[in-house]
Amino acid sequence: MEVKRRGRLTYYYHQDNPLFSSLVTEALDPETLKVYFAGVTGGHTAARVLRLKEFAFMNPDKEIPLVFETWSALLREARLCDSVADIDFIEMHVFGRQPKSPSPITDPAGYVKERERLREAYARAYGRYFRDQMPDRGLPVRFTVNVTDVPDEAASYEFAATGLLQREPV
Fold first, then answer.
1. Cα 95 to the chain's mean position, in Å?
2. Assigned CATH class of 2-166
3. Residues 37-49: pLDDT tens digits?
4. Domain boundary assignment for the chain
5. 89, 162 in Cβ contact below 8 A?
6. What is the rounded radius of gyration, in angstroms, for the C-alpha atoms of the chain?
7. 149-164: pLDDT as tens digits
């Protein structure tokens, strides 16, 4: 991982994608870093970072943990901490896709049913992840979901987040 520092900011990026940082940190004080997590997906992004052969495909129970594990891997690679369980998330932004099937034209009722299933499944998967993996952390104050298209054709969502890494004073 490449590192570029400028004032209070540190940019972490990979040489194969020098246009975007995987993480950006802002030093708030000697013990506290504000961490900006790049948008990642449970699709190709997670597969690339985690070196997986397969990825999640509109399966929230698999996709949500993959996104958080991708961020954990980036935190470890940047030598900031061991996992997202060390982060107090402030806000998350999620850009979702419409269901890939059934077609809203040929099966409008099935499409609406699948959209509702996905909405409920993602809400459950997020809640379960925060409850099971980060029980002593607070929950983000803002959790924005925008339905749009995302560049990763294999993904159903793209996630970005901001949080604090609060280290104990030495």
1. 10
2. alpha beta
3. 987 766 656 666 6
4. 2-166
5. yes
6. 17
7. 555 565 566 778 999 9
